[in-house]
Amino acid sequence: MEDIQKDPRFMGIEARGRNARELVALLDQRLMTKTREEWVCILSEEGCIFTPIQTPLEVSKDSQALANRYFIDVDHPHWGRTRMVGFPWDFSETPASWQREAPALGQHTGEILSEAGYTREEIARFRAEGAIQ
Questions:
Q1: Residues 57-69: pLDDT tens digits?
Q2: Is 2 exposed, middle or buried (0-12, 13-18, 19+ CB in 10 A)?
Q3: Where are the domains of the chain?
Q4: Distance CA 36, CA 53 (A)
């Protein structure tokens, strides 16, 4: 963007920081003149370090996201083979793993309340009153 190369608002990191809002607006205007794919080609040819913004579907198919196990394929008992969000961390000695589907609303309520000391009658009354699922 030759028209702003000598603009004092953007000469040096401090000046760009003070005028970041204006700089971002100018960059936004310029970036809207081409498609994402066109910018990927231009920036790649120039040796720039960049990452294009991806849609959620693109991210779920991204080779690096899959290699990092940010998305995993699981055999869900109701949905069959499906891709799910994976784990933001993984430890060599205790690797993260998918064990089972998330419980349905109220699926374990009776069990938890029993462990907390409530009787079957009390839990039945809570259900009848609509206090629990």
A1: 999 999 999 998 8
A2: exposed
A3: 2-45, 54-101, 103-133
A4: 9
